[in-house]
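Sanity check. The docking grid for nickel (II) ion depends on where the pocket ends up, so I'm generating a full predicted complex first rather than guessing from homology. Inputs follow.
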Amino acid sequence: MAEIHELRSRFAAALSRMYGREVPAYTTLVDVTEQVNADFLAAHPASAERFGSIARVTAERHGAIRVGTASELRDVADLFAGFGMYPVGFYDLCDATPPVPVVSTAFRPIDPAELARNPFRVFTSMLTTADRRFFDADLQQRLEAFLARRHLFPDVLLALARRAADDGGLDEPQAQRFTALATAVFELSREPVDRAWYRELEQVSAVAADIGGVSGTHVNHLTPRVLDIDDLYARMTARGIAMIDRIQGPPRWAGPAVLLRQTSFRALAEARRFALPDGSVVDGELRVRFGEVEARGIALTPSGCALYDELLDADPANAHGLWDSRFPASEDELEKLGMGYFTYHDGVRAPIVYEDFLPRSAAGIFRSNLDRDTAAAPGEAGTVYDLGALAAIVGREVHDPYELYRRQQQRSGGPP
Ligand code: OOG
Ligand code: NI
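Predicted complex below; grid placement will be based on this.
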């Protein structure tokens, strides 16, 4: 039998092969990432693996997908449960700057041993079609009707996912079928895109068009993990690949690596086919998929995150040295101030790696890949979402990330 973690590893690897075929620049990014990681490991043999073994980091990816309805999100939850991935955290991008009409969660393993085996995670966004600041009543109605007609996840795929979740794995032929079908769902569809409909949605939001303007879903990006993101950024730039202008998240500084640093580049235009009102089909292109890379550090407690937010507002790039003067300069300090999470096995303290996402970085990542910002009209947001509302939609607990880190720390015998 192929156990759930084996299914997850195979799924992540299969998506990576598929995405490499679809977006060749992704393969370049993975190659450069592996070179940076090998060099970093050679230069820092004692410390390079403190935030995860090199085997884990080499296989580690996060994907991003976007769906249109609550029922699609429920199917996603059933599908990912078959890979041992559960919803963690709530991200409201509707109120971000600029606003994006989605709410999001991340599906990932929640057990430390499972994370160590393969931490594959997928940032998953759902379109908020009832949000009047983006969609008037007429557009909402047509959008929901369009979305109701599509069927993203074959029944046989969801049945295999439920069996895997119930039995803790699948026999070999079923395991192969499950990963192949799951991977195929996230391939870029070759169905012609209704150009008038796509353009109408694009006027409201490029993300809305990417979700509700097409008949399928697809991986938006697949992100490898790098041990030195500044080095990676420099090497990609030296290769002539235009990166976004900055690294999102905490600045480069001499203190401990915390949370998550990410950067991205825009993928080249991809060929898509478009259906015109007269029924003819023409070739065209869309630019919606991109490349992203990330570095991970220590998970911060709520007070650590509050200080992170405060400093990011005041001095985003540490240009005025605010981080140097205000942020805990060592893991000892983080621990003493109760701002970071650690484990304490056999009296040895080790940092707990951050396994989640950052709302403001996510907004920045969305933004960096849009040609223009969405201007939300003033008005009511419609449905108000939070972690509980999202849990009701997916029909499962949406885990609170702080709670998961706190429990992990507590179980290791550390301070509660
Ligand atoms: C998701 C953007 C957020 C991240 O790493 O913060 C994200 C998307 O573009 O669908 O992937
Ligand atoms: Ni991402």
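Relevant for the grid: Residues 82 and 162 are 6 Å apart (CA to CA).
Also worth noting: The mean pLDDT is 93.
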